Sequence to fold (109 residues):
Amino acid sequence: MMSRVCFYCRESAGFFARVCADCKKLLARVEQLRGKVSYGQFLDGLEQTGVSKEKILRFLQADPEGKGSIQDQVTAEMTSELMRVMGISGRQTAQEVKRIRDSVGKESE
Ligand SMILES: [Zn+2]
Fold:
């Protein structure tokens, strides 16, 4: 019998599991924290699960569903929230955030 590999960190997830115990813990914490805290507090919250920093980074940068890594998704959400607080109108989608970032980059060239 073969043990399966975790969707996120690519370590052994154990039999029948798609996500290992550590990443399950991290996913639950992401759901608790997203939209409520700053990025620093978000990372602190993930570290409080006791999972190693290296594994947390791998987890954040994994993109198992092809819709952007957890890090990208959370960054887009936080940027949207910041824009709302600052009174910038318009649709605050991940694409819009990227477009703004690209145009700012071009201006500074
Ligand atoms: Zn994992």
